[in-house]
TrEMBL record:
It comes from the Bacteria. Residues 1-26 form the signal peptide. NCBIfam families: nanowire_3heme (TIGR04257). The lineage of its organism: Bacteria, Pseudomonadati, Pseudomonadota, Gammaproteobacteria, Oceanospirillales. Residues 46-107 form the Cytochrome c7-like domain. This is Cytochrome c7-like domain-containing protein. InterPro entries: Cyt_c7-like, Multihaem_cyt_sf, Nanowire_3heme. Keywords: Signal.
Amino acid sequence: MTYRIPVFLCALLASVTVLSPLPAQAEYADVVLNKYAEAAGMRPVIYPHWFHRIRFRCKVCHNELGFEMRAGANDVTMAEIIEGQFCGMCHNGQIAWSTEHCDRCHTGLPGLKSGIRGSNETSGPGRW
Ligand code: HEC
Ligand code: HEC
Ligand code: HEC
């Protein structure tokens, strides 16, 4: 009986430590790509990194497709995408919906600058 309370407190403490190590954040949140879009009369592109990251391994994009792992570091043009490079490797109507759906990628509010929005830290398996 005398051990009941300390054991319970230990368990509570352990669960608190396990359950609340960090605030919840989407890893690598959203990336804005706006080197050319707005200047060419289109809205900036919002790239949801987390949405893609949970579906594909890092190396698919950061090795095989040649996306540099730094927001704003890539020169991506619409012509290359339509030819099947970068986003167009998948957004081709086969792996994912095609480039006809302009307004699914060009969703940013005018004036947004290229770069990451939200967390670019990871606490999960992507940490390296
Ligand atoms: C799969 C996502 C995606 C779709 C769908 C898409 N775009 Fe883009 N587009 C991009 C990205 C990424 C860029 C490069 C953004 C930047 O850095 O400015 C871009 C850039 C552009 C540019 C800038 C100039 C240039 O030549 O690169 C224009 C214009 C453009 N897109 C038009 C369109 C039109 C019109 C459609 C629909 C027919 C479309 N886009 C559909 C992702 C997309
Ligand atoms: C489907 C494609 C895709 C996958 C999968 C992917 N990324 Fe990315 N990642 C991108 C793109 C696109 C950018 C933005 C590049 C730009 O802005 O020019 C980016 C940007 C980044 C950045 C830059 C953030 C910053 O602050 O500059 C990091 C770090 C990163 N990715 C890490 C990862 C890791 C780690 C994984 C796997 C766990 C991963 N990515 C999976 C496409 C991908
Ligand atoms: C490795 C493959 C791959 C690459 C590369 C890729 N995507 Fe995607 N993307 C997908 C798939 C798969 C989906 C989910 C399609 C579906 O739901 O039908 C998706 C969905 C999306 C969505 C919708 C997200 C939502 O909430 O429904 C956006 C926006 C998007 N992609 C933009 C981009 C842009 C911009 C790029 C280039 C910077 C890009 N994608 C590169 C595979 C890819």
